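Notes from hallway chat w/ T.B., transcribed later so I don't forget. T.B. wanted the structure written out for a chain they're using in a teaching module, and asked if we could keep both sequence and structure tokens in one place. Agreed to drop them here.
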Amino acid sequence: MMSNLFSIFDPSTNLFNLPFNWISTFLGIAFIPYTFWLIPNRHYIFWNFILNKLHNEFKTLLKNNYFQGSTFIFISMFTFILFNNFLGLFPYIFTSTSHLTLSLSISLPLWLSFMIYGWINNSQHMFIHMIPQGTPSILMPFMVLIETISNVIRPGTLAVRLTANMIAGHLLMTLLSGTGPNMNYYMILILVLIQILLLILESAVAIIQSYVIAILSTLYSSEVN
């Protein structure tokens, strides 16, 4: 039962022994040229409004470390994750963000680049960050150990947070939809209403998780400067 349940997240489209499901991850790139020729409408204006809000918020979080274009990587990451989260809500479309392969491929290189940059250019600041101000001398070794562990697990927590949240909603909808054939007409109507509510909830989760990943990555970036 469990293998059948989790098989909904397995790439199933193969051609010449290549998993073509992962191509859906990069479908958003196909829309980039179209946006340059797009006549401004309410959807276009609304999306630009969101991007400008994100830009201003990320610029505030980066504080004195902000320079022209530094928020672009975090806005791009938000857009990429949001697109793939929403794409997975459609039937028969592969949910790439429900795999650690993708989420860890996003979080690990970012974290590594932040750490390498911080330890090379701001070594003293990185050592100071290991021990919070006012820590008693006897607790300093433990604080260094705790801070080191919390730093090392950051890419893992970012990846698992995104993957677990996307898997949980999809599993719940799959479990509920599997009980439909055994219900009467009225129970099926109630089940459909519950599924619609779950779909709305999953849409909210898709937006929130994209925002959380982008915000945390911005905060991690600001810490190394």
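Follow-up for T.B.: The first helix runs from residue 2 to 6. Might be a good example for the class.
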